[in-house]
Amino acid sequence: MGLYDTYLAVRHRLHDGNPPEHVAIVITERDLLADGAFDTLSAALGWAFEYGAERVTVSVSVLDAAVVPTLVRELRQVDAPRRLVVRGPEDAALDEAEGATEPESGDGSGPGNRLRDARASGARASGAKASDAPIRITVGLGGKAEFAAAVRELAADVEAGDLDPESIDAADVSDRLVFPEEPDLVIKTGAERLSDFAIWQSVYAELYFTDVNWRDFRKRDYLRAVLDFQDRQRRFGR
């Protein structure tokens, strides 16, 4: 770690403000096409847990739906410091435990893949949920589509007589989202538009935009985002 990175890390440790417990990182499919992009992601996940995060959500927005299966497959191979689950648009309607996975290497037929499948089966048997994974990655799953799916599920429950429409509240909506937890900090690299990532969950999140492109994102850039968060006084809409 360089001298400047060390300086930022010391500032972080001595800061009176709490670091974000749940960090969300918003990137694009184009970001992942750059050389070293997956290594940057692996490093960023490590930095997040090193500097106080307990959960990390990564949203990958896509323009070409045809690339989603490839991205999902590649992201499931990312070297991550904690249990990781990857979800694409087709996974939104699945049982949450169905996609539970851990970062293991493998080409789809080797022992790494079989071990991953065995662990996923074990997670289903034990009742573990994908939303409980410390690292969650969504690919091409926009907030509008996620919210619409939750509304459809609510409507189906009402029609089936399992839910009183007069009793529906925010918790009922949250319970039907793919990843219901609210991030504390949302980081967007490249100074581009935010997209419709987690429009329900991130309503009170602190947003941090950096001009640094994803391929150039370094530990110092992550620490700057965390320090900026620690300097803020959160109002939660008040």
TrEMBL record:
> What would be an example GO MF term here?
ditrans,polycis-polyprenyl diphosphate synthase [(2E,6E)-farnesyl diphosphate specific] activity
- Biological process per Gene Ontology, one example term: polyprenol biosynthetic process
Record field: compositional bias (Acidic residues): 92-105
Q: Which InterPro entries match?
A: UPP_synth-like, UPP_synth-like_sf
**Sorted alphabetically, which Pfam families does this protein's record hold?**
Prenyltransf
**Gene3D superfamilies in the record:** Decaprenyl diphosphate synthase-like
> Keywords for this entry?
Transferase
The UniProt annotation puts the region (Disordered) at 89-127
Descriptive protein name: Di-trans-poly-cis-decaprenylcistransferase
Organism, per UniProt? Halorubrum kocurii JCM 14978
